[in-house]
């Protein structure tokens, strides 16, 4: 995702400000947790990404609470953190386009990754940088493979439970 020019916040990444603290305290066998943030830049782009993740690829569900066994996602700036003054949100790193995800334990890692890549590739207009646009185009070429990993080819507009 960083290769697409997106800001990614995840404590398991070496460039996260608290990565060293996590590495020192966490059990290495448990990974770095299931919370992930992607900064889409604007609230509109964040909402479009979440729409594709929920309705096109069945990656997860939009929600304001992120505690559930399925993958849930939220645009924090316009939901859970909307009561904060803008300067406090900025100081906390909560941009208008920040999408927080709590990755659930349903589906395989490969399925989740393919669904996320497909939703990112569907974003219009293309991602901001020429490198990101080229990467998104390359992801579209892998769409057929991703469709095989999604029940009914990802054409359903509702979740199957």
From TrEMBL:
Specify whether Metal-binding is a keyword of the entry. Answer: no
One GO cellular component this record assigns the protein to is: cytoplasm
Q: Care to name a GO molecular-function term for this sequence?
A: pyridoxal phosphate binding
State whether keyword Zinc-finger applies: no
Q: Which domain of life is it from?
A: Eukaryota
Q: Name one GO biological process term.
A: transsulfuration
Which UniProt key words apply to this protein?
Pyridoxal phosphate
Cofactor(s) listed: pyridoxal 5'-phosphate
Q: Which family does it belong to?
A: Belongs to the trans-sulfuration enzymes family.
Q: What is this protein called?
A: Methionine gamma-lyase
């Amino acid at each position: 995702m960083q290769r697409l020019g997106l800001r990614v916040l995840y404590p398991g990444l070496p460039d996260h400000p608290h990565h060293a603290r996590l590495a020192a305290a966490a059990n290495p066998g448990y990974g770095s947790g299931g919370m992930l943030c992607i900064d889409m830049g604007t609230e509109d782009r964040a909402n479009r990404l979440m729409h594709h993740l929920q309705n096109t690829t069945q990656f997860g569900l939009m929600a304001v609470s992120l505690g559930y066994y399925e993958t849930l996602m939220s645009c924090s700036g316009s939901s859970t953190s909307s009561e904060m003054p803008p300067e406090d949100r900025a100081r906390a790193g909560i941009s208008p386009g920040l999408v927080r995800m709590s990755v659930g334990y349903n589906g395989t890692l490969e399925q989740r990754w393919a669904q996320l890549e497909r939703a990112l590739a569907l974003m219009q207009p293309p991602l901001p940088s020429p490198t990101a646009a080229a990467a998104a185009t390359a992801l579209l070429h892998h769409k057929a493979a991703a469709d095989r990993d999604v029940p009914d080819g990802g054409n359903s507009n509702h979740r199957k439970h």
